[in-house]
């Protein structure tokens, strides 16, 4: 195997080198791909490829500092509803957070059927689209179950308090999980359900996820409530979410009034050397994966999330994102080093 000076560069195998730091700042400021392309003088596709590199960097950095976190005895999760390709296909992103450190720990994604009342025109349009593509049955249940399965990665073995809203799927999925049943056997598990109509103050047990939801709506273009911008691909949508998670966890200060104070990840770890190392090489050197990647993140990394077609005309085909071979090998290297 031959190595070169570009082997470990974040620009490895890139046809055109763009300013990744500038693109990162645009992405976290709510700019769309076309807006960034006009600003940089390049195509939307070139910006999208750069966003995929930044998303993989964010996921690899997340995997690098998570093992150094202390296991928490209190976690919370909730869902954020957006859309992919069309308002007829809502996407639900379920987020897991730690209210004590205010870290965003994990996320899962699924595409669901459109609910609510529909006009006759909407019903005809949705039925025509269903004949070409429709979400898999039980996708939301599988997405939430996957996040529940990842709870032991972050939960304290002594006891666990889990805060959620009153979604009807949460209690049966928690009862079906083997790790949760182990907590319940020793009376170490408490599930607290808070109504979605409760005041979103700091006294609300779901305040962290309410705050994260607000910042996502503010900073990520396709989740802005009053915008017509809609994500074109589920994988790209989640890459931008992981970019937001890295910015929220490791770059933004814990409190705005502190100015250049420590980030949430630095406060949670105590020793900030690892976070400083990851930040110093984030825009220049590919971050190595040294542990097995969780299934929710692996599906994003490998572009395996189901996505509706972008164009619905007869004969048009859906083109999936292509993941470079070196990016797939990075995953395999992480599993080998862990073994």
Mean pLDDT: 88
- Categorize the overall geometry: globular
- Biggest sheet strand line-up: 3-2-1-4-5
Proportion of residues in β-strands: 5-15%
Report the strand count: 5
Structural class of the helices, strands and pairings? alpha/beta
- Helical amount: 40-55%
Number of helices: 13
Reported for the largest beta sheet, the result is:
5 strands, mixed
Question: What is the string of helix and strand elements?
Answer: HHHEEEHHEHHEHHHHHH
Residue ranges: pLDDT <50 for 5 or more in a row? none
Distance between the termini: 22 Å
If you compute it from the alpha carbons, what radius of gyration comes out, rounded to the nearest whole angstrom? Answer: 20 Å
Report on this model:
The chain is of the alpha/beta class. It has helices at 20-28, 33-40, 44-65, 120-130, 139-149, 170-176, 178-185, 207-219, 234-251, 264-269, 273-281, 295-301, 325-338; strands at 74-84, 86-98, 103-111, 160-164, 189-193. The chain has a 5-stranded mixed β-sheet, sandwiched between helices.
Element layout with pairings:
Layout: H1 20-28, H2 33-40, H3 44-65, E1 74-84, E2 86-98, E3 103-111, H4 120-130, H5 139-149, E4 160-164, H6 170-176, H7 178-185, E5 189-193, H8 207-219, H9 234-251, H10 264-269, H11 273-281, H12 295-301, H13 325-338
Parallel strand pairs: 1-4, 4-5
Antiparallel strand pairs: 1-2, 2-3
Helix pairs in contact: 1-3, 2-3, 3-9
């Amino acid at each position: 195997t031959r190595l070169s000076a570009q082997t470990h560069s974040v620009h490895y195998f890139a046809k055109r080198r763009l300013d990744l730091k500038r693109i990162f700042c645009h992405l976290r400021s709510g700019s769309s791909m076309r807006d960034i392309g006009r600003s940089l003088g390049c195509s939307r596709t070139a910006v999208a490829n750069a966003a995929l590199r930044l998303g993989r960097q964010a996921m690899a950095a997340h995997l690098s500092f998570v093992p150094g976190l202390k296991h928490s005895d209190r976690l919370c999760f909730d869902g954020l509803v957006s859309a992919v390709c069309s308002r007829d296909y809502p996407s639900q992103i379920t987020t897991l957070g730690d209210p004590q450190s205010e870290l965003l720990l994990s996320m899962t994604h699924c595409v669901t059927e459109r609910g609510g009342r529909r006009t006759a025109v909407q019903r005809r349009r949705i039925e025509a689209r269903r004949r070409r593509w429709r979400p898999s049955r039980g996708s939301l249940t599988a997405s939430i179950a996957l996040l529940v399965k990842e709870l032991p990665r972050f939960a304290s073995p002594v006891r666990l308090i889990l805060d959620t809203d009153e979604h009807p799927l949460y209690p049966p999925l928690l009862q079906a999980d083997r790790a949760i049943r182990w907590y319940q056997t020793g009376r170490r598990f408490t599930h607290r359900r808070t109504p979605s109509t409760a005041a979103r103050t700091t006294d609300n047990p779901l305040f962290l996820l309410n705050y994260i939801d607000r910042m996502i709506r503010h900073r990520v273009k396709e989740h802005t409530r009053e915008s017509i911008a809609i994500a074109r691909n589920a994988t790209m949508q989640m890459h931008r979410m992981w970019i937001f998670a890295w910015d929220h966890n490791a770059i933004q200060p814990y409190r705005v009034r502190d100015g250049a104070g420590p980030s949430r990840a630095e406060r949670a770890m105590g020793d900030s050397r690892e976070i400083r190392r990851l930040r110093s090489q984030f825009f220049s050197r590919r971050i190595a994966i040294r542990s097995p990647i969780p299934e929710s993140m692996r599906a994003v990394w490998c572009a395996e999330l189901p996505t509706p077609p972008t164009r619905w005309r007869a004969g048009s085909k859906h083109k999936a994102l292509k993941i470079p071979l070196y990016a797939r090998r990075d995953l395999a290297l992480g599993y080998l080093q862990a073994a």
